[in-house]
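Reply to thread "Modeling small-molecule complexes from scratch"

Following up on the discussion above, here's a worked example others can learn from. I took a protein sequence and the SMILES for magnesium ion and predicted the complex. Inputs first:
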Amino acid sequence: MARVITMHSYRGGTGKSSTAANMGLLLAAEGLRVGILDTDIQSPAVDTIFGVPPGAATCTFADYLVGRCEIEEAVRPVPGQDLFIVPSRTGLSAINEIMADGYDVGLLNEAVTRLVAAFRPDVLLLDTHTGINTETVMAVAGSDALVIVTRAHRLDLAGAAESVALADRLGCGQRAVVVNMVPEGTPDADLVPRVEKAYGSPVTAVLPYVPEMAELAGEHVFVTAHPRHALVAGYREINSVVLGDAG
Ligand SMILES: Nc1ncnc2c1ncn2[C@@H]1O[C@H](COP(=O)(O)OP(=O)(O)O)[C@@H](O)[C@H]1O
Ligand SMILES: [Mg+2]
């Protein structure tokens, strides 16, 4: 049975997509079969992170949503890994249709069910758009675990109550709260208690701000380029919490 794990953050640019990609590669390296479905049709990232050239995918999650192809056709294996990705979209055509006509939100759950049946992943990671929107609510509702990615500053933490309410209401009990992009060299004894108070949950990992992340530019994912970096230990910690006994 696949374990479905959804990424969530209240604000954008906190590191959901990069965290998902790194978690996925580590799990695949441990021998699990992994899929990553990018449900973020507003601002896709998984294609770029895994080096899919712009426009290379003729069938994507967004194309499936508008009925142009089957979800199984949108799957792209990542060479050399027991990992597949489903890009969200690679052009504007499908999103134009979605903005004009909307789509049946039940298609997200259908996509998950069909991907699990056809490709039998041990873990399916769902990357999502920032904040609370229809796709995220559907994704969280159908998940076994939720990874909440946040920075430690006031603006991010202001959204914590809503993220927690979302997880509680949708019954997604297993949670990892990840504090990302913590500046190195500024010890802040209050950081973890402050985040734990905001989320009412223990902090699973505190990840440093690592400038090398920005330099990878789609050629490598961080864990592949820097396997011994402290950041990688943080990603492993998240995996062990969200997989529970399955890991
Ligand atoms: N720990 C980190 N240190 C430095 N940069 C990071 C870190 N985590 C993510 N980033 C960078 O931050 C940017 C936004 O990350 P992304 O994963 O796209 O966020 P989101 O999916 O939440 O919008 C990317 O350029 C990514 O490489
Ligand atoms: Mg993203």
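What I'd highlight from this example: Residues 8 and 50 are 20 Å apart (CA to CA). The first strand starts at residue 3 and ends at 8. Questions welcome below.
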